Amino acid sequence: MSDTLEVKVPSHFERPGHRDAVAAGIVRGALPLKFAYAGSAAHTHDRLAHQEGYRSVTGAVSFVREAMRRAGLDEVPALAEIGPGNGVSSLALLARLHDAEKPPTTFLGLDFSESLLAMARKRFESRRPDVSFAQAGWDVEAEPTAAIGEWRTGEAPITALFLGNTIGNFERPGAALRNIQRSLRIGDTLVVGATLRTGNADPEGMLTPYRNQVFRAAALEPLIAIGIDSADLDFELSYEKDEVVGHAILTRPLFLDDHELPPGHRVRCFVSRRYLPSEINDLVSCAGLRPFVSSVDESSDHLVVIAFKDEDDQAAAPALS
Q1: pTM of the model as a whole
Q2: What is the pLDDT of residues 148-173, one digit of tens each?
Q3: Are residues 64 and 173 in the same domain?
Q4: Which of 94, 267, 298, 318 has its CA 20 to 30 A from that of 21?
């Protein structure tokens, strides 16, 4: 038995408006997952991201590298990643790109969580000092960003990464992709990773990687940060409609702002959607990007779609989902 005690980061929100947004989500019964990555929740997510079972859900960087090779992406000196999290997977992919004709020399991390970006920066500085690391906060579900344009140098196209099944965690994945499209230039490439939907999925097998205390703590941290005692919460996982869904359930009455919530009130605090390749291709196309490579790794239930921007915002398709 180890005599090392893990230091718990005091629960807190990252920015002033987050507390009210989390409270509104609790009352509504649907809490956007982005709040499970920011503030003190970033530290619980960091612990979760180191678990082998959870990493198996978010995709292998070797498969991403092979898809990029198929797409002819061998000159990638500038990478911009949407949702790099703690940077562990980003660094693993960079290691796989060592044999590229022009491997990455500059990297831009774009994330809702400033706390996770700080973790990523430290890892880059210690492990890849040869790669210039820049960072910018971005709520990709809310609006486009000017950060990519401000970071890039020259007119050369850049490659953007949107990996780890992040697209499966969003409330409106089509809107997020549209905001990415608006933030890129014509000629830029987007690499999207997702978890594959299979027709014969075993519900219990799909839930196994999530059945642990580290995941429970990560999913519930935004509710803990608002002041709810974890002892007053049950946590329920289910696999329904090709989605892994997590609900926090109140076991006692809760007075939150001007709202009284009864025992049994359910709050969806986690969702991870699975996709068919055709569904990702449709989402990407509707966002105004043109898919040209779609790779499926059935052994690990992951897929990668690679697309490029070849038209301006006025010509792009307006459909969102």
Answers
A1: 0.89
A2: 999 999 889 999 999 988 999 998 99
A3: yes
A4: 318
